Amino acid sequence: MNTSIVGRQFELTESIKSYCDSAFEALSKYNLDIISAKAIISADERNGKKGFDVEFAINLAKKDTIVIRQKDKDLYAAIDLALDRASKVLRRHHDKLVTHKNSDELKESRIIVDEVSIEGADEIVPTELELYKPMEVEEALTKLKDSGAQFYVFNDMDAKMRVLYKRNDGKFGLY
């Protein structure tokens, strides 16, 4: 990453340059292709009040340039605020790249994971629910009692999906 630090109406010291360099190094944790980063620091005096303007221009590969401007009375505080805003933008961009990858790549990785079998692990066997046949509540109650399960999902005669479950007091509930 190419970095440049420019001072306008302001003389840069070595400590300010090293502080900006460390700020730019903190942005490299997002593993984005940062081509160059430029910091323009200028002194600003308006209405008798002194302040500093910090502008970060970050060039990313295959992305537009990100420009962040920050003003503050304290130079180091302005750099920190600009760094926070830049890291927020880069984190969002990184999250988009990570979570919105090509769906083909995700499908391929899922297929590979599905083919791997671990010895000694519990096996999950998919079963089809018999939801397509409507049944009476009494019929579902007998199936629940016979199965020994905690709940039973079924479609009633009005084509509504219902859940019959065992309560703690020994009675049955119906959703």
TrEMBL record:
InterPro entries in the cross-refs: HPF/YfiA_ribosome-assoc, RHF-like, RHF/RaiA, Ribosom_S30AE_C, Ribosom_S30AE_C_sf
UniProt keyword annotation of DNA damage present: no
GO BP annotations, alphabetical order: negative regulation of translational elongation
Transmembrane segments: none
Domain Sigma 54 modulation/S30EA ribosomal protein C-terminal span(s) in chain numbering: 121-174
One GO location term (cellular component): cytosolic small ribosomal subunit
Alphabetized UniProt keyword annotations: Translation regulation
Xref: SUPFAM superfamilies: Ribosome binding protein Y (YfiA homologue)
Example GO molecular function: ribosomal small subunit binding
Statement: the UniProt record of this protein carries the keyword Repeat: no
Self-association and partners: Associates exclusively with 100S ribosomes, which are dimers of 70S ribosomes.
Classification via NCBIfam families: yfiA
Name of the protein: Ribosome hibernation promoting factor
The organism of origin for this protein: Campylobacter devanensis
The gene coding this protein: raiA
